[in-house]
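ok trying this again, last paste got cut off
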Amino acid sequence: MFRIIFASVALLCLTTSLFAQARDLQAVLQDNRSAVESASRKTIDPLLDALLESALPEVPVFLERWREKDVWQRKSDGRFFFIRKGAGADLTLVDLSTGAEVGQAASSDLNQLKPNSGVRGVIGAALVQFQLSDPDPARRLDALAAIERDPQASHLAALRRAINAEPDAPLLARKSRLERLLTIRFDPDPAARVAAIESFHGDLAIDVRAALNPILATRLQGAVSLPDGANIARQIKPGSVALPDDAAYTLLVAGQLVPPLVTAADQKAVLIANIKEGQVAGVPVADLGTQDARDAAYIRLAVNGTVPPLVTKTRKQDILGQHVFFETYAEPVPAVTNAATAALRSIDTIVGLNRAADLALDGLSLASIYFLAAIGLAITFGVMGVINMAHGEFIMMGAYTGYVVQQFIPNYTVSILVALPLAFAVTFAAGVAMERLVIRHLYNRPLETLLATFGISIALQQLAKNIFGTQARPLTSPAWLDGAWVLNDIVSISYIRIAIFVLALMFLSLLLFILKRTRLGLEVRAVTQNPRMAASMGINPDKINMLTFGLGSGIAGIAGVAIGLFAKVTSELGSDYIVQSFMTVVVGGVGNIWATLAGASLIGFLQKGIEFMNPSNTLAAQTYMIVFIIVFIQFRPKGIIALKGRAAGD
C-alpha cells in the first residue's frame, strides 16, 4: 500500500513538473532557438505555431517586444530576456514570464534580436489573433480592422475562438460577419463555405461582392475533350463573338495542342533558306510566283521534317472542330460556385432596385432645385406674361447676399437664417425697381421685354464682376449639413440636398397658402384669370403686377442662397439655371404652382435618367432633354397643366 501511494505521488510530481516546463515561455523559445536567433519569413511559422499552442498569457507581450527589437539573448547559455537599463554600465535582465529582475550582464555578453521588416509583419499578423480577445474593446476593434485590411487563413480559427467570448454586441456582430467572410475564402469544408455564402443573400456591402467575385473567376481553355472533374462554367464555340477563330487557335497553340500558324513572311523566309540548286524541295524557284506554289513547296519541306507543318485555313477549321473550348471556374467545387452565383444574382437584383431608388432620390433632389429656381419665374410669367431673362441674375444676387452675410456673421447656421429673409428683401426690392422702371413700360410687347431683360441680365452680371470679382466666392453650409444620409453602399443623399428639398416643400406650402388663403392671393388669381374683370371689381392690376414681380424675384433670391450652398457662387450662377427654369415653366404650364412642380419633377427625373444612361457625356444629356421637351410641346403646347385666362392666351 505504501509503495502504491509513493508511486502515485512521484508520478503526480513528475507530471506537474513536465506540465510546468511545457507551460514555460522560455522552454518554448529554447525548443525553437534557431528560429528565434535567425528568424525569417520561411522559418518563423513553426515558432509562432508553438507559441500559439502554448496559450501562455505572456506570449503577446513577448511578440510585441520582439517586434520592437526589445528582446536580448545571453551568449553563455542562449536564454532570452528583456532588458532594463540601470545606472551602471551593466544591463538588468528581466524574466520573460514574470517580469522580475533575474540578474545583470554586460552588453558585450548579450545579442540583441533584430527581426527584419518581413518578420515584423508576420509577428504583427500573429498579434492580431491575441488582440481579438484583449480586454480593451478598442484593441479588439483595431484587430478586426487589421484582419479586414489583410485577411489570412490563420485568422479564421482565432476569430472563431474569439466569437464565443465576445461580450460586446456590436463587436460580436462584426466578428461574426468577418468570420463568415473568411469562411468563404479559407475554410476547407465546402459545406461551411456554402452556408456562409447563403447567409449573405441580398447583402449590398462591397466586401461581400469582393469575397464572392473571385469564386466565379474563370479561365478560358481548349482541349480535345472536356476534362473529367473540372468545374466548367460554360462551353464556347470558336468563331463566335466571345471567341474568334484566331483567338481560339492561339489558345490551342499556347497549350501546345497544335502547331503554330506560319505567317506569309515566315513561309517566305523558310523557302529562301531552303533554296538548293535553284529549287526548293524539287520546285524550281521560277515557279514559286503564286501562293499555291509556295504552299506546295513548303508542304514538301514539312513532309521531309525540315520545317514545321503548314496549317492552311481549311486545316485550321478542321483542327478547331476537333477541339472543345470552355471556361473553368478557379473554384473547383461546383456547390460553392452555384451558391456564389445564386447569392450574386440576388445581390444584383437588390442592387438594381437600390440604384433605381438612388436615381429617384437624385431626380427628386434636382426637381426641388429646379422648382425653387423656377417658381418665381412661373408667378411673374403666369400673371404678367413677362419673359424675364434676368431671372437668373436674381438667383445670383441671392447667393451673393448669403456670401456677404457670412462675412459679418461667422456662425454659419445663424448666417444662413439671416441670409434667407435678407436675400428675399434684397431681390424683392430689385424686382420691384425693375418692374417700376422698365417692365411697366413694356407690357404687351414681348420682344422688347425680352431684349430689355436680357440687357439687364448682362448689366447685372458685369456689376457682380466689378463688385465681387470673377473668382468663385464660398457660401459655406453649417456643419450639421455636412456629409450625407447613407442608407447603404448604394443609396445616399447629401444633407444639403435634403435641406433644399425641405425648403422647396416649405415654399410650396407657403405659396399655396398665400394664393388660396389670403387677399393678395385672391387678387393675383383674379388678375391672372381676367385682368379687365379684376380691374372692374376694384383690384389694381398695376399694383398686383408690381407685387407679383417682386414676390417672384424675392423667391429667386432665396433659391440663390440654397443653390449657393453646393454650387459655385459666381456672376454666371444664374445663367446655369435660367434655361432649366424656362423649360420648367413651359413644360409644367404657366401661372400655376402645381404646374411648376410637375414641370420641375418631369425635367429633374428626365435629366437624371438620361445622365444615368449616358454618364460620360452631360452635354448629350442636356441635348436629349431639350429634344424631348420640343417634342413634348408639340403635343402639349400649354404644358402639363393648362391655365385658363390671359396666361393661356385668352
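PB: full thing came through this time. Residues 334-384 form the longest helix (51 residues).
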